[in-house]
Amino acid sequence: MNSFKSPLFWRLLIGFCTVNLLVLLLGGFLTRRFIEYSTIQEVNWTELAQAANQAYESGGAIALDDWARQQRQDGIEATLYEDGRALREIRLLPSIRRSLPVWLGEQRDIVLKPWPGYEVVVQQVSGSDGHRQLVASSSARARLPPHARQQVLLAVQLGLSLLLIGAAGWWIARSVARPVKALRDATQRMTAGEFSARVSRRWSAKHDELGQLARDFNAMAERTETLITHDRGVLQDLSHELRSPLARLQLILDLAQHSTHASEAAAHFQHAEREIGRLDRLTAEMLALSRLEGGLPGIERERLNLGELVAERLHAAQVEAGARGIQMQMSDVASVTVTGNAMLLERALDNLIANAIKFSPEHGVVEVRLQAAHGQATVSIRDHGPGVPPDELTLLFRPFFRGSNAARADGHGLGLAIAQRVAQVHGGDMGAKNAEGGGLEVQFRMPV
Description:
Layout: H1 7-38, H2 45-73, E1 76-82, E2 85-86, H3 94-105, E3 110-115, E4 118-127, E5 130-139, H4 146-191, H5 201-204, H6 209-257, H7 262-293, E6 302-305, H8 306-316, H9 318-322, E7 327-333, E8 337-340, H10 342-358, E9 365-373, E10 376-382, H11 415-425, E11 429-434, E12 440-447
Parallel strand pairs: 7-9
Antiparallel strand pairs: 1-2, 1-5, 3-4, 4-5, 6-8, 9-10, 10-12, 11-12
Helix pairs in contact: 1-4, 4-6, 6-7, 7-11, 8-10, 10-11
């Protein structure tokens, strides 16, 4: 699978990128604020002014420059003014420089704090050779040495990175672990025999790999529950259906054992042989239905002429129909090509044709039509028998269902169920209705 098409991949990638971006932005902001508020130091401006004046008196402008460079390393920009003139230039904000002549003319000490961590000072100082004024600005952030600022920045960045990455890692791990735990819990419940266990919609509705995995698990659990329920039902039905013929067979063999003449025993053995054949057919049909309900993984498919297949199965049923004088009529034959499994389609058609013959009256007619429309082929098989009560039509395709008219013919109630499952395996379906004028019409539909 391509990682770039994975929602989970993008969620993790975007999550980590977002964390790194937050670390950069918040780290820089918090570090700056930390430096500003943690490095504010009180400056003795009187002593500073006297030191500047002493440097100037002892060495002139050169000594004042040396002194000013030393102060700059501590975050202080300072100079001396004499008669309103700067003895050396320093950097000041334009608004402060415009107001400076007024402050100097007031001949008093001034300390201004335009914003936290920044000070502007005018300090009066008198020396042996006259009166001067110290003008200085101080930044708390700048007073921290560069190497110390780097160490503080790295420490804050590291701490913030660990905090944010830990929080993001916890959130991502939790978002992955919780649906995995839900899957594990559902799997354990299924292992314990609770086949109705499902992963809740809270996790299966997510649009990522874990959500898809939860949906696949639910589909698998649904299929497993359906198959197990079906198999249990089939086993119960089969047990019920086998009980009667086995009881009859036991009775027949008991009668044969106590027969006084060989001819009498032979008749009982023939009867037993018929019962054994009936048991064999019932078991074969049950196995076929169970295999169809299992989904038939990997069945072979080929292109087939459905009209030829229907005609072939009608011809094969002629012997059974002829024994009761029943006519087989095929009309509206269309040239229809389908893709399917020939053996399964033959079995379905044989069951439908045999069912129609079975419920047709003596010397009756079975009508077969094949039509194709809107991408779908429909095989309609109609008998002229008693039909089915309307409330039983929806039950016809249920395994072992035998309606109120079942006493008219022998059977197990599996033929239509098998035919319907064959239709479903081929992407089609089946329907049944009572035809006008009497009889039952069964329709087998599948894509062309």
